[in-house]
Amino acid sequence: MAEELTPLERDVLALERRGWESPGAKERAIREELGMVPVRYYQLLNALLDAPRALAHDPVTVNRLRRIRDARRAER
CA-to-CA distance for 29 and 18, rounded, in angstroms? Predict the structure, then answer.
């Protein structure tokens, strides 16, 4: 059986599924809803994108974020 995501990891993916009017709104939600600084959030998110259990939990969101991450890396 595949390893389950922690509640925090599920919350991170749920936050990524939401649409944002501005980058500031997302950073504010990260602080208020998850109680963490954005830098730590993005570190956790990046590690989560490589976790097979995250892909099993939410393949649409994880694959979308992987494509975005890969495109940004290719631009560098």
Answer: 11
